[in-house]
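Quick illustration, no need to memorize.
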Amino acid sequence: ADRGDLEQAEPMYRLMLNGMRAAHGDKHPSTMACVNNLAGVLSRLGRLSEAEPLCREAVRGLERLLGDYHPSTLASIDNLASLLADQGKIEEAEEMYRKVLTRASAKLGPNHPVSGPVAYKLAGLLQSRGQQEDAASFYDAAALAFEDGYGPSFDGVIEARRQAKEARGKS
């Protein structure tokens, strides 16, 4: 969506969130999904400091309501990690990405497709910090997860393997 669409969407998301809070309170997964969606809109608009508390609220609420291992909870933690990375809060972003991967691995297995994008983002974050070997390992993990989910010719597999080679200094 372009910026104009997002700016028009924001009041609708706020209205929807207010309606969900009025109807269900904060103890309903749909309310937390609305919180997470509004945070996503604000984030895409570049209003990261407004989005962060909403992301944190969504994570806390979904952990409480759905549990630590539910896919919606994991997605909300991933969203928070990406937001933190965008704000330059790299250590906390890394912690959140690792939390998603640990939980996803425990519940869904180490190569589940949900882990691919998270491992890939964590690898990029580590690579930007100069942690090349750790980055290569997470690119490898992303490639395996992508391959298990989408097959060996999936673009994500190819790109993750290329990035792993690059991180190891092999082109």
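The helical segments are 3-24, 29-44, 48-66, 71-86, 90-108, 115-128, 132-150, 155-167.
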